[in-house]
């Protein structure tokens, strides 16, 4: 709003009545005072804004009526200086300040002062408006942009501002990122409301740890960040983290019932390497995910080695995405699985291979975990499954008539099981390729099954209903008790390589494997031993009545072409004298 053009005609040759009418129709409050500060004009908008009637205010001192007490000296002083020195800076400039209403309530206003001349008298008009709504809106916007509505804590954006402020002021601080372990399970089991109450309680509990210059924020669903003032010595960090963990462990619901919670905490002190607020937050989050990878319920301090590993991971992830798109870098190797008694070929395990144009052969151990973390395993797994099924169809056709059909073992990542469309996709691939469901064996690791025992059972049952066979991979490395296994709809146990190695070490180890085989038989499972590297391994396992064997003694995972020769019946291990 420019005020000069509005008031110029007013002060010119208009009649007083016209002036009053114009002044009253203006949406801004207009308060005119003389050199002594006495009010000479007060339009109806000003009446509405201040709650004073014009007739009451005329002639009274503006600062006593409308200016908050502590602003009065500045107001009087400003006017006096202007009158004496003519310093123009207060005239014509829009400023924001506070005013007082008739009921004593203070409120923000925006005001522009104009000097006018009326019959030789110097008058000053304040053109003003109540900006309470605008202020409220600003506050609301700030709240939306910077605060978490659930806990009232600062959000990620505000935390980043705190960090930036600290950096600009060269203030040292330490950042801790606190991620509540398995919170997803809590939400799923106890519901949304319960989870939210828990988070509110946690926010309060964590706030108790704040020193005067510390900050707390909620930066993710179940993730909090604490910014401690100063860089703390290791033992002090340990004490504080232990105290934070204890708070998390002692969380209770609003109704007072305890819940067992743990947290993964990552700690990063600020250093010269941190140029932006994001950098330190990233470091603390890397340390948090390390704590999580280690099984949670712990804290980890960031080290620069963690960062280089992350850069490697990001590179691999990027390359793997490309590989999945162009497909010519990925291929599937097949490792024969042999019937131990006869030495005949029973099936294959499909194992993905990645031949990178520059980096050469990248082993699955270097990329499967990353693919699982990033979810790329879902498309990778699907691709391998389709490939392996197509391959199996070709091989069943060239197999000698009268031989039992081959089976194909394909690894299934727990991430794939999480996908709701997993079952549909397996069904579609079977249909597209013509593979009989019973020829397909899906391998899922023991630890994956046990980590989410209840959910896994349901999903595995659905797979089972398709007619697909299921196998527990790496059996013996997890914590599953044999007696628990009957709950799972599996057909097969794949005994981990470590057992095969241990076989030769003691009679006791052999007894363990014998028990596994006997119990598996009792439960109706077949047993596959993996990692058979010598004839001695093979003979021992056969003696223990293990059904199938797989390992370098028979064959490494080979190209489809080499595998085809095996399918055609040329089995080199049968020619070995020690077999
Ligand atoms: P795994 O499922 O336990 O596969 C067996 C691994 O042991 C394979 O390693 C295989 O080459 C190796 N192996 C076989 N016989 C012997 C032996 O006699 N001695 C020794 N020392 N090792 C043997 P690979 O191919 O490097 O795969 C490693 C892991 O990567 C697999 O372990 C599996 O967990 C994962 N993986 C491979 N392909 C896929 C896939 O397509 N999908 C998923 N989800 N995971 C895969
Ligand atoms: Ca496997
Ligand atoms: Ca295995």
In short:
The protein is an alpha/beta fold and 579 residues long. The chain is 46% helix and 22% strand.
Describe this structure in words.
By secondary structure, the chain is α/β, with parallel strands linked by helices. The strands form 3 sheets. It has an 8-stranded mixed β-barrel, surrounded by 6 helices. Helix 13 crosses helix 14 (364-374) and helix 14 (364-374) packs across helix 15 (376-398). The protein starts with a helix and ends in a 12-residue tail after the last helix. Bound molecules: ligand C2E and calcium ion (2 copies). The site of one calcium ion (CA) has 4 residues, from strand 16.
Which characteristics define this entry?
19 strands, 46% helix, elongated, binds calcium ion, 579 residues, alpha/beta, disordered N terminus
Present the secondary structure layout.
Elements: H1 4-11, H2 16-25, E1 29-34, E2 39-42, H3 44-50, H4 54-57, H5 62-66, H6 72-85, E3 94-100, E4 106-118, E5 121-130, H7 132-146, H8 156-168, E6 173-180, H9 183-190, H10 192-207, E7 215-220, E8 223-229, H11 234-249, E9 263-269, H12 277-293, E10 298-301, H13 304-326, E11 330-339, E12 345-356, E13 360-362, H14 364-374, H15 376-398, E14 407-411, H16 414-418, H17 422-433, E15 440-445, H18 446-451, H19 453-465, E16 469-475, E17 492-495, H20 497-502, H21 507-523, E18 526-530, H22 535-543, E19 548-550, H23 560-567
Parallel strand pairs: 9-10, 12-14, 14-15, 15-16, 16-17, 17-18, 18-19
Antiparallel strand pairs: 1-2, 1-5, 3-4, 4-5, 6-8, 6-9, 7-8, 11-12, 11-19, 12-13
Helix pairs in contact: 9-10, 13-14, 14-15, 15-17
The structure holds ligand C2E and calcium ion (2 copies).
């Amino acid at each position: 709003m420019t005020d000069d053009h509005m008031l110029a005609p007013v002060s010119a040759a208009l009649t007083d009545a016209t002036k009053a009418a114009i002044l009253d129709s203006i949406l801004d409050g207009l308060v005119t005072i003389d050199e002594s500060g006495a009010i000479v004009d007060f339009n109806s908008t000003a009446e509405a804004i201040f709650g004073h009637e014009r007739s009451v205010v005329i002639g009274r001192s503006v600062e006593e009526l409308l200016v908050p007490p502590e602003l009065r000296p500045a107001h009087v002083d400003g006017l006096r200086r202007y009158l004496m020195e003519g310093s123009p800076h207060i005239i014509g400039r829009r400023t924001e300040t506070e005013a007082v209403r008739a009921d004593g309530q203070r409120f923000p206003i925006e005001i522009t002062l104009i000097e006018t001349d009326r019959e030789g008298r110097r008058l000053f008009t304040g053109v003003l408006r109540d900006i309470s709504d605008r202020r409220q809106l600003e506050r609301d916007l700030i709240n939306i942009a910077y605060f978490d509505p659930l806990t009232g804590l600062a959000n990620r954006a505000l935390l980043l501002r705190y960090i930036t402020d600290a950096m600009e002021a060269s203030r040292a601080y330490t950042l801790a990122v606190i991620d509540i372990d398995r919170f997803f399970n809590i939400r799923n089991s106890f519901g949304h409301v319960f989870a939210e109450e828990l988070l509110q309680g946690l926010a309060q509990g964590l706030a108790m740890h704040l020193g005067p210059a510390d900050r707390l924020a909620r930066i993710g669903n179940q993730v909090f960040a604490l910014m401690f003032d100063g860089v703390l010595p290791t033992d002090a960090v340990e004490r504080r983290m232990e105290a934070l963990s204890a708070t998390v462990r002692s969380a209770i619901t609003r109704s007072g019932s305890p819940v067992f919670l743990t947290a993964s905490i990552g700690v990063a002190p600020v250093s010269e390497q941190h140029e932006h607020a994001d950098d330190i937050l990233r470091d603390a989050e890397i340390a948090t995910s390390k704590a999580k990878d280690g099984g949670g319920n712990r804290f980890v301090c960031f080290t620069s080695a963690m960062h280089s590993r992350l850069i490697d991971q990001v590179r691999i992830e990027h390359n793997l995405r490309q590989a999945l798109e162009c497909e010519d870098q990925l291929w599937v190797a097949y490792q024969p699985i042999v019937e131990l008694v006869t030495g005949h070929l029973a099936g294959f395990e499909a194992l993905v291979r990645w031949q990178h144009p520059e980096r050469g052969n990248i082993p699955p151990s270097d990329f499967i975990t990353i693919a699982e973390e990033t979810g790329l395993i879902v498309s990778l797994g699907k691709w391998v499954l389709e490939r392996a099924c197509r391959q199996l169809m070709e091989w069943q056709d060239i197999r000698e008539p009268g031989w039992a059909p081959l089976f194909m073992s394909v690894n299934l990542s727990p991430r794939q099981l999480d996908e709701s469309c997993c079952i549909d996709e397996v069904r579609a691939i079977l249909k597209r390729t013509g593979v009989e469901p019973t020829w397909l064996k899906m391998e899922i690791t023991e630890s994956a099954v046990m980590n989410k025992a209840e959910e896994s059972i349901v999903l595995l049952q659905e797979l089972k209903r398709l007619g697909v066979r299921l196998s527990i991979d790496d059996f013996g490395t997890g914590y599953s008790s044999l007696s628990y296994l009957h709950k799972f709809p599996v057909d097969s146990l794949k005994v981990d390589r470590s057992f095969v190695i241990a076989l030769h070490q003691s009679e006791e180890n052999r007894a363990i494997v014998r028990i596994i085989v006997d119990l598996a038989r009792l439960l109706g499972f077949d047993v596959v031993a993996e990692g058979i590297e010598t004839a001695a391994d093979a003979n021992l396992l056969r003696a223990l009545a293990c059904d199938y064997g797989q390992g370098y003694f028979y064959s490494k995972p080979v190209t489809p072409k080499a595998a085809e020769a095996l399918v055609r019946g040329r089995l080199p291990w049968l020619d070995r004298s020690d077999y």
